[in-house]
């Protein structure tokens, strides 16, 4: 069986956050599965090497400033999360019949997309005024505190936000450097990466403008999440692996047919966790989406269905731009009564049940897109397993305790998306 892995040794960085080392197939407790796995250890080693190389370019900075960049950018990237996007690059390449000789290019592309992800998270935290990310203080908050402690001139908050924006720009630049490390089919790979960046930035802009204008419902929430999150999490990483493999156009369409419903289901799951998730697992304050005025499909649906006191309660939630970071619960603190009451309304309207069913329908649609596809069996199995992992995590069991069956007379089915077309504007989508 052909697989893109190498024998590796050395000591693993134990400061990394807990994550799935085996992003496909069952784990047997080994460091990684040498027959069927995205090799997280090998990827992290390549990423560490890239980060060391890029930090060396900053030798003209003083030791204190270099340490700040190492801690709040290089360290943030190295700790990472589940490395979902690099895994999709890997399996997009494998599904497209890629050669083992492309390993360095696949790793480079995975590093590139992970750096873009870091850029997006840092900038998103600034725009959302988020105090926590992955259970740690966000970069702009930590940098503002450094300014305050140093007694420096000017606004500490402004300094923190400005410095964090520059960290995001640096991560954006390092993403190009990563892709240039191996120039195999560089033009095709760069075309995919450029499209990813355009969609990501435009999706974020759409989020900002919709929040400022006010109004908007499920259709707007779907459009924003598709371009701000869904496509750059699943579809474009798969396309990047496909481009490096020199895959057939027909297989790219199959990958899109799988990725688009899965990307939506992934975002819907994230929306649910943003309201009901356990902070110990999500790394965010309890009920953060409710307290930060996030405009999600779940909340839009609940607002449509709520009436009387329930509608009034949801209207009392902070709107975008009104949320105060100091109003968010600290780690270990219970969420405010408003969060608990809003959760009850969301459940009572049946919005949570509808979204859970929607996630299931979309996951089935993604799996169905792979049926009969001409790709290696291990790649199909891995993509099916990734779909399950992305869309059905229930880290706290909270949903099982709070999600009571509600009548859903108008249960929608998933509207398939084509590769060339944007999201459907009809039906009950995110």
Protein described:
The chain has 430 residues and is mainly alpha-helical. Helix content is 63%, strand content 1%. The chain contains 17 helices and 2 strands. A two-stranded antiparallel sheet has the order 1-2. Helix 3 packs antiparallel against helix 16, helix 4 packs parallel to helix 7 and helix 9 packs antiparallel against helix 15. The protein is flat. The relative contact order is 0.11.
Strand order of the largest sheet: 1-2
How many strands, what sense, and barrel or not for the largest sheet? 2 strands, antiparallel
Q: Uncertain regions: pLDDT < 50 for 5+ in a row?
A: 1-36, 395-430
- Helical coverage, percent range: 55-70%
Radius of gyration: 21 Å
Number of strands: 2
Instruction: Provide the structure class.
Output: mainly alpha
Descriptive labels:
single chain, 430 residues, mainly alpha, two-stranded antiparallel sheet, 1% strand, disordered N terminus, disordered C terminus
Give a summary of the structure in a few sentences:
The protein has helices at residues 40-56, 63-79, 84-95, 103-128, 139-150, 156-180, 186-213, 218-245, 249-276, 279-282, 288-291, 297-305, 308-315, 337-348, 351-369, 377-391, 398-402, and strands at residues 132-133, 136-137.
Write the layout of secondary structure elements.
Layout: H1 40-56, H2 63-79, H3 84-95, H4 103-128, E1 132-133, E2 136-137, H5 139-150, H6 156-180, H7 186-213, H8 218-245, H9 249-276, H10 279-282, H11 288-291, H12 297-305, H13 308-315, H14 337-348, H15 351-369, H16 377-391, H17 398-402
Antiparallel strand pairs: 1-2
Helix pairs in contact: 1-2, 1-4, 3-4, 3-8, 3-16, 4-6, 4-7, 4-8, 5-6, 7-8, 8-9, 8-12, 9-15, 13-14, 15-16
């Amino acid at each position: 069986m052909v697989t893109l892995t190498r024998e590796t040794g050395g000591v693993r960085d134990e400061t990394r956050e807990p994550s799935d080392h085996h992003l496909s197939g069952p784990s047997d407790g080994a460091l990684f599965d040498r027959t069927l796995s995205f090799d997280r250890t090998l990827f992290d080693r390549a990423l560490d090497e890239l980060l060391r190389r890029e930090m060396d370019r900053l030798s003209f900075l003083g030791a204190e400033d270099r340490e700040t960049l190492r801690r709040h950018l290089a360290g943030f990237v190295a700790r990472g999360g589940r490395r979902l996007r690099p895994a999709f690059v890997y399996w997009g390449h494998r599904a497209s019949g890629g050669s083992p000789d492309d390993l360095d290019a696949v790793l480079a592309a995975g590093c590139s997309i992970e750096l873009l992800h870091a850029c997006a998270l840092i900038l998103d935290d600034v725009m959302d005024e988020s105090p926590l990310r992955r259970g740690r203080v966000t970069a702009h908050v930590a940098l503002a505190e450094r300014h305050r402690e140093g007694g420096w001139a000017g606004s500490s908050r402004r300094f923190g936000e400005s410095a964090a924006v520059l960290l995001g720009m640096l991560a954006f630049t390092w993403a190009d450097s990563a892709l240039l490390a191996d120039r195999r089919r560089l033009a095709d790979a760069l075309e995919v990466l450029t499209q990813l960046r355009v969609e990501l930035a435009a999706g974020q802009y759409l989020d900002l403008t919709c929040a400022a204008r006010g109004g908007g419902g499920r259709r707007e929430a779907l459009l924003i999440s598709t371009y701000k999150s869904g496509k750059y999490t699943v579809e474009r990483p798969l396309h990047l692996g496909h481009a490096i493999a020199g895959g057939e156009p027909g297989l790219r369409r199959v990958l899109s047919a799988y990725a688009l419903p899965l990307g939506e289901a992934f975002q819907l799951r994230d929306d649910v966790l943003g309201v009901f998730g356990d902070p110990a697992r999500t790394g965010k304050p309890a009920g953060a989406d409710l307290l930060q005025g996030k405009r999600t499909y779940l909340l839009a649906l609940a607002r449509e269905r709520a009436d009387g006191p329930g509608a009034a309660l949801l209207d009392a939630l902070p709107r975008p731009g009104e949320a105060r970071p100091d109003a968010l619960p600290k780690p270990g603190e219970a969420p405010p009564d408003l969060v608990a009451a809003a959760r009850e309304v969301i459940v009572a309207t049946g919005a949570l049940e509808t979204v859970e069913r929607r996630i299931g329908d979309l996951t089935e649609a993604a799996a169905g897109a792979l049926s009969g596809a001409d790709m290696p069996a291990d790649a199909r199995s891995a993509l099916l397993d990734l779909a399950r992992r992305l869309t059905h995590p229930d880290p706290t069991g909270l949903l099982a305790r709070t999600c009571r069956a509600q009548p859903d007379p108008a249960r929608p089915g998933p509207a398939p998306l084509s590769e060339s077309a944007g999201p459907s504007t009809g039906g009950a989508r995110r």
